[in-house]
Amino acid sequence: MLKQERQAYILHQVNLHNKILSANLCQEMNVSEDTIRRDLLELSTNGKLVKVHGGAMSTSFSHTTAQNETIYASDSKKIIAQKAASLVKDGMFVLTTGGTTIIELARALPAGLKATFLCGSLPALFEYMQHPNIEVIVIGDKLSRNARITVGPQAISQVKAIKADLCFMGINAIDPEHGISDNDWDVVMLKKAMIQTSRHVVGLSIAEKINTIQAIHLSPVSGLHTLITDLPADHERLKPYSDKGLRLL
Amino acid sequence: MLKQERQAYILHQVNLHNKILSANLCQEMNVSEDTIRRDLLELSTNGKLVKVHGGAMSTSFSHTTAQNETIYASDSKKIIAQKAASLVKDGMFVLTTGGTTIIELARALPAGLKATFLCGSLPALFEYMQHPNIEVIVIGDKLSRNARITVGPQAISQVKAIKADLCFMGINAIDPEHGISDNDWDVVMLKKAMIQTSRHVVGLSIAEKINTIQAIHLSPVSGLHTLITDLPADHERLKPYSDKGLRLL
DNA sequence: CAGTTTAATGCAAGTTTATGCGGTTTTTGC
DNA sequence: GCAAAAACCGCATAAACTTGCATTAAACTG
For residue A94, what pLDDT is reported? Predict the structure, then answer.
């Protein structure tokens, strides 16, 4: 195993789990603790992670440089991301929205995945670009400042021009009767187009957004094919959705 | 086994697995490690892969694990950025390429500037987004991994659909007779479109790129209206460009 | 066609890099 | 404060790299 490869793996693990134990790493990769420590030292001097006693943590997670906004309900989103990542197979055409859950998904994607991702969210695009075998296609248009995603007619027509195998959609509010809703007109328009043009739409939602409603209606629940939450698939709170024919994960 | 054949095989393996061990290769092909090393050296000087201790990695993989991204000639680029920033006025429509000089420009823009910026470079877009009053428009298409900029027909048609007041173009090579040249086909196509569609094109080039030529011709010097370098405007090395009618800064 | 040139490869000696090991110091949880 | 875990330090070693040179085979030349 190459040194660079090892360091890339370490970095991936750190970004995925926020923290890692060096004891853990040296077992996984069959090298001595010294080597791991040297790797961590190198990575930390380059600012890629923060070394702590017993292992390392991601820079964003570290409180010393906590200018980055910490992700809300980060653990729940990591669980969702793991489930979602397992759906992506080599060669797929994947369309995604933006949002912190999608970013976690991007980090959770398996290292060697060969697929094409289409996205209009700058932070998500950055994460996709970290994967050497992922082809990234940027959806262009006006950048919505609060959503950090491109929105507008150009983006919508670009989305409509493709037929994605899979669409991952961050859900801001979902209710069995009222369906999916959101609070930004432009984003709703874009998501509608995404639902229209994708073979399989997967909604990603943390538990606390289940059974909530927001201002702008986006689609009935039936617009989704699969719903991923941080709850177990057979949780009673999700029953209304499986009754409506959604696959739960 | 022929040399070309061997190198093609190496390249294939690298692109398939993202990395290879030279020990592995010399066993598979029954040649000495020296030969493999020489092959890797040759391939890496041609930019086909990146040589590391113990083997090699694909360029895309090495980009994701790049250790120290220190900006080359950063001071010169800051000087250029300052000069360029003074050209942007409130209300302007500005089109830019990518590159480190452009990123410095983005950082050097006055705080309260109210303008619209169009760009396909992810790192540059991030910088533009830091300015609260700048409207950002993303140029969408396939993301070129080494240039970190969107390229392709969609990007070109998007560029052609607008008439920018000002275009900032990072210059990789410029020569009074041969004009502007570059080393990436897709990027050249995009820059050509930018020159066509902009009212005023400003070239940004550090001194050492003055009077150099690269593989792909982009435009005669007359395609630019202004040339900004880190040299004083009346420097004798720039005289051939002012003779050709360029405004120097 | 013989002699020369050139490219490609392997070999050997010396250097650098990466890694593991033993002993000592520091940190941490109790 | 104490025991255990982890970090640090120096050193040893093996693998990989560099350089220069010899050998071979192919290509070129008069």
Answer: 97
Task: Flag residues 50-109 of B with CB < 7 Å from strand C.
Answer: 53-54
Tell me if A126 is assigned to some domain: yes
Domain count, chain B: 2
CB contact under 8 A, B60 and A132: yes
Please check whether residues B60 and B127 belong to one and the same domain: no
Contacts 24+ apart (CB under 8 A), B236-245: B237/B207, B237/B210, B237/B211, B238/B210, B240/B176, B241/B174, B241/B176, B243/B176, B244/B176
Is A150–B140 a contact, with Cβ atoms under 8 angstroms apart?
A: yes
- Total CB pairs under 8 A between chain A and B: 103
Cβ–Cβ below 8 Å for A139 and B135: no
Backbone angles phi, psi at B121, to 5 degrees: -100, 120
Residues above pLDDT 70, as percent of chain A: 96
* Residues B7, B102 within the same domain: no
One domain for residues B115 and B176 = yes
Categorize the per-residue pLDDT at A103 as very low, low, confident or very high, splitting at 50, 70 and 90.
Answer: very high
